[in-house]
């Protein structure tokens, strides 16, 4: 398997399925003690080529160097999106009060960061107290450094 060393460790090519490549091996910790994320945050990369472009590595380094800020941005974007349209995201009446919690108490947890070749990436919160978070979490998608959408993962399927 291929290995790529960069500022935050060694990224390893861990799977190849039908000319799509999955890279992993790097984690990062949240440094903001107000945020409740205690676990190391896994970083994954999905590509259609068997190499990592330097522009993608630069984006990854940039995001990881400001991971606390991006976690805050993702939570605020998620909170505002769910507040603007709770019915679209199947927020139940008994969950509405959760939307009023501040950023540091917002009920999502276990973030993961996934990068793609097209300079898009996401922070997926693997768990949360909203029904929409079951069973695969909810994600905030970014284009370069700007949040662009919330992705409902509740109806996704497991990839074998």
Q: What can you tell me about this protein's structure?
A:
It is a single chain. The radius of gyration is 16 Å and the shape is globular. The chain has one domain. The chain has 160 residues and is α+β, with helices and mostly antiparallel strands. It has helices at 54-65, 67-84; strands at residues 3-6, 9-17, 20-28, 41-47, 108-116, 120-128, 138-143, 146-152. It has an eight-stranded mixed beta sheet, covered by helices on one side.
Task: Pick out its properties.
single chain; 160 residues; alpha+beta; 8-stranded mixed β-sheet; 2 helices; 8 strands; globular
The whole-number mean of residue pLDDT values reads 92
Strand order of the largest sheet: 1-2-3-4-5-6-7-8
Quantity of strands, as a count:
8
Give the amount of beta strand, in percent.
35-45%
Number of self-contained structural domains = 1
Oligomer: single chain
H-E string: EEEEHHEEEE
Structural class: alpha+beta
Summed up, the helix count is 2
Using only CA atoms, what is the Rg? 16 Å
Reported for the largest beta sheet, the result is: 8 strands, mixed
Low-confidence stretches: none
């Amino acid at each position: 398997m291929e290995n790529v060393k960069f500022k935050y460790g060694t990224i390893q090519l861990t799977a190849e399925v039908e000319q799509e490549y999955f890279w992993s091996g790097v984690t990062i910790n949240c440094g903001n003690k107000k945020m409740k994320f205690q676990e190391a945050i896994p970083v994954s990369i999905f590509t259609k080529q068997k190499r990592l472009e330097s522009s993608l590595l630069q984006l990854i380094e940039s995001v990881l160097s400001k991971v606390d800020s991006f976690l805050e941005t993702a939570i605020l974007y998620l909170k505002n999106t769910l507040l603007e349209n709770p019915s679209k995201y199947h927020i139940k009446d008994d969950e509405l009060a959760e939307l009023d919690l501040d950023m540091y108490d917002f009920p999502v947890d276990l973030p993961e960061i996934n990068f793609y070749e097209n300079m898009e990436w996401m922070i997926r919160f693997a768990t949360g107290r909203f029904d929409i978070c079951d069973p695969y979490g909810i994600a905030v998608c970014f284009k370069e450094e700007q949040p662009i959408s919330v992705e409902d993962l509740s109806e996704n399927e497991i990839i074998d």
